[in-house]
Amino acid sequence: MNEIIRKASIEDAYGISYVSAYSWTEKYTGLVSDEYLAQKINNLSEKAKKNRRILKN
User: Fold this and answer.
1) HEC-encoded secondary structure of 19-42
2) In Å, what is the CA distance from 19 to each residue of 12, 15, 32?
3) Is the separation of the CB atoms in 41 and 28 below 8 Å?
4) Residue 40: which of 13, 20, 16, 15 has the closest Cα?
5) 37 neighbors 29 (Cβ within 8 angstroms)
6) CA 22 to CA 28: how far, in whole Å?
7) What is the residue range of 44's domain?
């Protein structure tokens, strides 16, 4: 398999936020409250959406 390293683009925003949210879920489930974890994941998702809108304009 050949990997290519490149700068992230606007189109990568969703994938990056997904990986970040998944990482938080895997690492912190059981260590922090479910409410905090849900809020953190929601914030990551909202931030990714906002940044994508800003960068597209």
Assistant:
1) HHHHHHHHHHECCECHHHHHHHHH
2) 11, 6, 19
3) no
4) 20
5) yes
6) 10
7) 10-56
Residue at 56: amino acid letter: K
Domain count, the chain: 1
Residue 2 in domain: no
42 assigned to some structural domain: yes
Give the whole-angstrom CA distance, residue 7 versus residue 27. 26
Can you tell me which residue has the tokens 């906002």? Answer: 50
Predicted confidence (pLDDT) per residue in 1-32, tens digit = 788 999 988 788 778 878 888 888 899 999 99
Residue 31, both tokens = 């260590």
Within a domain: 50: yes
Query: Is the overall model pTM greater than 0.85, yes or no?
Result: no
Q: Please report whether residue 37 resides in a domain.
A: yes
